[in-house]
Amino acid sequence: MTIPLIETQHLDKQYGEKTAVSDVSFEVHAGEIFGFLGPNGAGKTTTIKMIVGLLRPSSGWVKVAGYDVQTQSLQAKAASGYVPDTPNLYPKLTGRELLRFVGDLYGLERLQVERRIDELLRLLDLQEAGDETIDSYSHGMQQKTALAAALIHDPRVLVLDEPTVGLDPKSARLIKDILRQMANRGAAVFLSTHILEIAERMCDRIGIINQGQLIASGTMDDLRSLGKGEGEDAQAGSLEDIFLGLTGGAEYAEIAEVLK
Amino acid sequence: MSVLAELPGRDVHLWPMVWKLLRLRILILSSGFRRARLRRKIGILVLGVVLLAFLGFIFFLSWSLLRFLRSPQLTQFVGDVGPFLESIPVLVMGGSFLGILLTSFGVLLQALYLAGDMDFLLSAPIPIRAVFITKLLQAILPNFSLICVFALPVLYGLGASQGYNLLYYPAVLLVLAGLALAAAGISSLLVMGIVRIFPARRVAEVLGFVGAVTSFICSQSGQFARFSDVSQDQAVQAFQALERFNTPWSPLAWAGRGVVSLGAGQWLAGAGFLLLSLGLAALVFGVALTTAERLYYTGWASMQGIRRKKKVTRVARVQREQPLKARLVGLIPPAVRAIILKDAYVLRRDLRNMSQLITPLILGIVYAIMFLRSGGEAPPGRGEAPAWFMEITRNMLVYGNVGISLFVGWMLIARLGGMGFSQEGKSYWLLKTAPVGTGQLVAAKFSVAFIPSVVLGWGFLLVISFLQRASLGMLVFTMIVVALCVAGSAGINLAFGIIGANMNWEDPRQMQKGGAGCLGALASMLYLPLSLVFFFGPSVLVTMLGWMEQWGQITGLLIGGAFSLTCALVPLWMVRKRVQLLGED
Q1: pLDDT (tens digit per residue) in A194-231
Q2: In whole angstroms, what is the distance from residue B482 CA to residue B476 CA?
């Protein structure tokens, strides 16, 4: 069994009286891609923000690379890279300057930073745009720049919130390949997505969150054998069927059938 | 019959659609008011009452002032002011027209091209003219209201004091509205023309910068004027110069002449001028409207495809640095260095920031010139002040150069320190997810506020000291004082900036929550004179006692330095826990 690079225990987040995340516990191991699914407002982004240290849990804890994100935040952050759902980057910096800035934040050597910047810009097809300010970038280019910023220090843990939204098929494929390579090299990749096909094809394990609670977690085979998926259909069912069965969206499919 | 023709909404009319869009805007406003907190509602109502009182006050003031202008005493001094009084409406209306023309450019640029609802409006089955008219009205209404607040009471006050007939009052309002529409029409044509050449966002940035700097220079240029020296001839000449605007050949004068003639009962001349001015306004607005359909849409559509010219920035030179420089730079942690460098790029490249940063520079120059013009001497007044008071004032004024330098530095710090964290905005996640400790973050932001402010302060100090031929010892002393005072001010402003930081802003004016920014500025405003008393008090005292000034300076540095460093560090220490929570709201 490999060591868990992401570990959450009884994670809970309250906003006033509203519970955004409740008692979420899971582990992501080295070399694993973990897909995090859930309907809108289920608590995916809140969970992710707690993993990367953007939000403090109301109770419970998160460990990244063995470090507690709250009490050993610098070590935990040094080991992880994060790509948010909306890549808000400094618009008046060039892509190259942004990457150099992030490299310095992570305490990398100057020469190493320059080498990594060249590699990443080439890999993500941003070489030409590298010396232009980010406010002239398209959404996809900004998304790729955010990914480059997350990869600059070669993290052991990579956390991505909807990484393929707004990307063209070529870029989406590139990102999928990069994530697989990262996992093959021993990193833990945690990604949330609405595209079930990506989760089904890419992820080694999948967690489904609904109304703030982790309602299912495991491999595709584990999910197929879960509660509502019992029976012949569910055994052979796609992730979409399992997801809708677990999150209660199956009835909408029936309504859509009637509308046809 | 085609399917499209059967769809509802194909047969859309212009004005009902304009009304629909305006109604939507009214709905948004009224629902914003209804859902606001009670405190805000009360605030708005109080503001309305205050505004009405202000209108009444200006009306009364104008009426009294205009009656005073006709008083025999003043006539004796400046001659017959009758022609000048008649030219007041011309001046006010001409000024209103130019005011709306200049101020509506930026507002229209924002409303016509940069508003968030443009995608929705232009993809909906709404005539482009309806969108244009609604945006135009939406953009000029605030400016028009503002001009009405100042112009209407003056013009109505003039009507009351001159005894004009009742037709004068609605005519004034009608003409002002016509002029506003014409000015906005010309302005919109300018906007549409410029946006076809330059990217709208860049135009907005440049405009904001130029507008802020120009208005600031204009507001401060009054400091140089010496109104007490105005002679009778100059007053008469000023009145005559203003009267020259009231010429029948100037289209800008037609509106004013029309309402005055109408008010005075000269029906033919009044109607003629009014028809001329309103006709011209309608023509300008009409041309803008018809041109808009083509210019506006194509301009907006082409904007979507505009890509900036490739901006070639300096590629990093990875070279072997000088050993000493490398060693010095190496003392600064890489993360702190990175944040300082990043902020320097961001502040320099965003013109909205530049206008805020240039303001202290202009103010500093204005006050330095005033200080040098006075020769560093205390004003004698009526000569009734006691001798000891004049002596203290004279001794304090020796350090007037420090006062100006600190004032410049203080203004810069209020911006750089107060908004040091909140200027990160939605990009703050990059810092928050990076392995950077609270101490390093605060140290970086402190340096971003402190370094430019102290450099600017020293720059002023050096120039003024050079012009005053100050001694080297005095220069070194004052430079240390400026650096320590700026450090204290940076700590205070940064701490208040942390308390009120808002990372979720769209408009830079919303960078601070609540009154933290104001409180920070107030606290540092109280801190500065107090620190100066600690720094210079001993010096002034020993000079008055006839002892060696150097002893006073050293004592001042010890007391003032301890006070400044306490103010630099303690507030930041107090808010250290808040830094860890930034961006989690």
Answers
A1: 888 888 888 999 999 998 999 888 888 888 777 554 44
A2: 10
Distance CA A243, CA A207 (A): 10
Smallest CA–CA distance, residue A106 to chain B, in Å, is 6
Cα B81–chain centre separation: 35
Bridge-based pairing of strands A157-161 and A188-192 is: parallel
B335 touches chain A (CB under 8 A): yes
In chain B, residues with a C-beta closer than 8 Å to the C-beta of A68 are none
Name the token pair of A188. Answer: 């833990």
Q: Say yes or no for a CB contact (<8 Å) between A104 and B583.
A: no
Q: pLDDT confidence of B348, banded at 50, 70, 90?
A: confident
- Which residue among B315, B338, B427 sits closest to A89, beta carbon to beta carbon? B427
Quick one: DSSP state of residue B114?
I
DSSP state of A106: T
The C-alpha atoms of residue B320 and residue B15 are separated, in whole angstroms, by 69
Q: What are phi and psi of A60, to 5 degrees?
A: 85, 180
- Tell me whether B304 touches chain A (CB under 8 Å): no
- Give pLDDT, residue A89: 92
Report phi then psi at B228, rounded to 5: -70, -20
pLDDT by residue (tens digit) across B215-227? 767 766 666 566 5
pLDDT tier for residue B451 given thresholds of 50, 70 and 90 = very high
Q: CA of B189: how far to CAs of A246, B186, B299, in Å?
A: 58, 5, 11
Identify from A15, A105, A128 which residue to disrupt to test chain B contact, counting B C-beta atoms within 10 A and taking the largest count.
A105
8 Å CB contact between B428 and B436? no
Angle at B164 between CA B158 and CA B169, to 5 degrees: 75
- How close does chain B come to A170, measured CA to CA in Å? 22
CA angle B552, B557, B560 (to 5 degrees): 110
Tokens at residue A68, please?
């507690």
**Distance (Å, rounded) from C-alpha A148 to C-alpha A126?**
10
pLDDT digits (tens, 9 = 90+) for A83-130: 998 889 998 899 999 999 999 999 898 899 999 999 999 999 999 899
Query: What Å distances lie between residue B376 and B261, B456, B482, B549, CA to CA?
Result: 54, 21, 19, 19
Q: Which helix (H) or strand (E) holds A215?
A: strand A213-218
Enumerate the H helices of B500-575 as residue ranges. Answer: 516-545, 549-574
Contact criterion met (CB < 8 Å) for B433 and A114 = no
Which residue has 């910047």 as its token pair?
Answer: A117
The model's confidence at residue A75, banded by pLDDT at 50, 70 and 90, is very high
Residue A127: CB atoms within 10 Å = 14
Phi then psi for residue B432, to 5 deg, are -70, -30
Exposure pattern of B268-287 as b/e (b: 16+ CB <10 Å)? Answer: eebeebbeebbebbeebbee
**What is the interface pTM, i.e. ipTM, of the complex?**
0.86
Mean pLDDT of chain B: 79
Q: Do A105 and B434 touch (CB under 8 A)?
A: yes
Q: Pairing relation of β-strands A67-68 and A80-83?
A: unpaired
pTM for this structure?
Answer: 0.71
Task: Spell out which residues of chain A touch residue B426, defining contact as CB-CB under 8 Å.
Answer: 86, 88
Q: What's the rounded Cα separation, in Å, for the pair B564 and B535? A: 10
| Straight-line distance from the first to the last Cα atom of chain A, in angstroms, rounded to the nearest whole number | 49
The answer to whether the CB atoms of A93 and B338 lie below 8 A apart is no
The identity of residue A190, as a single letter, is F
